[in-house]
Amino acid sequence: MDCASDPEGLATIRIALILPSVMANWRELPCYHAAYGHLAGAPIVMTEAQDMTESSKSSNPFGDRLDRWLNFAFIVGCVAVFVLITFANVAEPDIWGHTRFGEDILRLHQIPTADSYSYVNQGFYCIDHEWLFDVMMASWYHTGGVLGLVLFKGLLVAALVGLLILPLRQAGFGLFSGAFVILFALQVMGPGIVVIRPHLFTYLFFAAVCLILREATLGSTKWLWLLPVIIVPWANIHGGFLSGLSVILIWAIVQSIVLFKAGNRLADIRRIWLVMIVSFAAHLVNPFGARLLEFLVPVIRSMQLEIGEWNPLAISSESGLYYLACCAAMLLSLFFTERKRQPSFVVIMSLMLIAPLTAKRHLALLVIAMLVFGAEHLASVMQQLAKALKLKSFSDF
After folding, report:
1. What are the beta bridge partners of residue 125?
2. N or C terminus of the chain: which is more exposed, having fewer CB within 10 Å?
3. Whether residue 172 has pLDDT greater than 90
């Protein structure tokens, strides 16, 4: 589906914030209690209906049936919104460039190192640092045409959502509150997920790296050696692997300081730095070796001047408002949380707050980092809010 009439590609995504905000609290609405009392054959008295206990509700088959149908309707609605978000697509020139370059690689059985499509730079040495993504694009296009490309993007977004659900569920988010947070995150990442570009892999791999670092901080270090395994394909798909290496480096520094102050064995610190060194070396597993990094650094500097998404985030823009919302959510959750603040999480999230101010495309990475490293603190604040408002347990939502 092309959204040519919507240059931002966000028309279908805006629906995401409407459904959960209403459905998440239907049990607190007067209309729910009125309908519930009517089905039960009781007088429609608002105060009595609102005072019904959980035991009386569970013994009422009509109320249970209403709950099941409302839950089912909410799930169907969320799936529908997710499908609209995932399969909405804005056609942009890079799609066919990647597809064509991938076709050349498959036809020649090698990665071209000379530019054969530029009039000005004809025959000049070039590095296709996204060659693996190009091959994927060509393969999906040959298999399913345009629909195959859209399906390819849909699978990437679905995998990203699956990873982001994990920390939310561990933090205690329920069905409705978790769906609201996920759909809000997709809304913020909207400009990046309505196009088929290699940075979708950066979103996915960045989330995976953050999850591994989160688990390692909380005591489960067995997944640390997956970091270099992730960096290898990432370095051959998109230059965003530099963001992953940056987060790994920051985490290694902060976590080493924490372990040293706690008097932990030096073996734990050595293991952290060994994993970090191997992860950095993993980016060299590419057809260009060390020249890949030499190519990317000046290219990134030049893109900051030529490409809009590399410009600093404008606070007065729509994305700027989302950025302010993220800042407020993170700062409030860290300030009022009742759970332990991990120094590495706080440092990473704080630095990620600066990233969109250097390039607005980093806003998506900020959201991912907040959901992975800050889910527990956000859940803690929302639990306190639910108690203050005398609502049900936050996990019920």
Report:
1. 114
2. N
3. no
